[in-house]
Specification:
The chain has 347 residues and is α/β, with parallel strands linked by helices. It has 16 helices and 13 strands.
Length: 347
């Protein structure tokens, strides 16, 4: 870490703000529980290696963090929103309505969504279709959509364990849920043929068909977890037949308690995600309010510090914790240096 360079930047910033009315001297961050441990590692290192205060990092979910970011501009609003899913157009519209115009989208790396059960339980080899058939309100059977009748995994596929279906999945405020819906439930719905049946029933309206795929059963087999992964872990510990949905890094830090399932024959790992082999991976982001960069001491320095090779590179502490380093990190570093606001959303 180039501490002297950072310390010099801190000195310049302190001079620049001399005499200015600054209501707070700590960066305020909120959002994703998945990004939380990475942001906390960076915040602690930033406080230790610079003359700026240690940023305050809070959780609350990706959607909630983005909503807070878009509340307006000013020292009583947050500076950064952490997010495990990409910002939505509705978020951008809310920001614009409240005067938040220039937002930086900073991709910090990649993570995977894993499916893990109690360490002493059986091994699972899943497909996305298995999860759609396990949790969907309606499934395709004998060519017709019916209310989900499945109670055990081996009823879905004979070679799955004869264990009751019980799943703890991220609640709707979490970015992980958005990715889970898209890359597991909807993809599984397409894989098992139910999507085509929904499409026909919805007059070829693709959005409505996807919405129907994402409608989950309400009989207690699928339970939303609004807290972070520690709550999911506690639920799995108390229910030995249950399977929880976790981020890869959380699982990697709890391998003494959890057994991970494969997805489409691939074991989730940093290597399989980096190679693009594991099918349920996603980029992780944070969003920066550019209007605060010259108002909140250390904000620009923190953003550059976060995406530096020393922190977010393949040999940095974030990678050691489980983050898959972004192969385009240098491009992100240049964008951050230039304070480049994000353009229109694209797929």
């Amino acid at each position: 870490m180039n501490v002297l360079k950072i310390a010099a930047a801190a000195l310049v910033a302190s001079v620049a703000f001399t005499g200015a009315a600054v209501a707070r001297d700590q960066i305020q961050i909120a959002g994703s529980s998945t990004v939380l441990p990475y942001a906390s590692i960076v915040a602690e290192a930033f406080g230790e290696n610079t003359d700026f205060g240690t940023p305050v990092v809070e959780s609350g979910g990706s959607g909630a963090g983005r909503k807070k970011l878009c509340e307006g501009v000013g020292e009583n609003t947050i500076d950064i929103a952490n997010s495990s899913s990409r910002i939505s157009q509705s978020d951008i519209d809310l920001c614009a309505t409240n005067g938040v115009k220039d937002i930086q989208e900073v991709r910090i790396g990649y993570d995977g969504i894993v499916f893990a059960s109690d360490i002493s339980g059986p091994e699972y080899a899943f497909t996305q279709a298995d999860w759609h058939n396990a949790l969907a309100a309606e499934v395709l059977k004998d060519g017709k959509l019916i209310a989900n009748p499945y109670k055990a995994w081996n009823e879905i596929r004979a070679d799955l364990p004869a264990q009751p279906i019980l799943a703890f999945i991220p609640g709707t405020k979490h970015g992980t849920r958005e990715v889970f819906n898209e890359k597991v439930i909807v993809d599984g719905c397409k894989e098992d043929g139910a999507y085509d049946a929904h499409l026909a029933a919805k007059n070829n309206d693709k959005a409505e068909a996807a919405k129907a795929c994402m409608a989950l059963r309400t009989d207690g087999i699928s339970t939303d977890i609004d807290g972070d992964y520690t709550e999911t872990l506690a639920r799995v510990a108390a229910n030995k037949n249950a399977i929880g949905v976790f981020g890869l890094s959380f699982y990697q830090n709890n391998t003494d308690k959890l057994r991970v399932g494969t997805m489409a024959g691939i074991v989730p790992s940093v290597e399989t995600i980096a190679k693009g082999e594991y099918p349920v991976s996603r980029p992780l982001y944070f969003y920066v309010k550019n209007a605060h960069l010259d108002v909140i001491p250390g904000l620009q320095e923190y953003v550059e510090f976060f995406v530096s090779d020393d922190m977010a590179g393949p040999n940095g502490p974030l990678a050691a914790y489980g983050l898959v380093s972004d192969p385009e990190l240098a491009k992100t570093q240049e964008m951050v240096k230039n304070r480049t606001p994000m353009g229109p959303l694209t797929k």
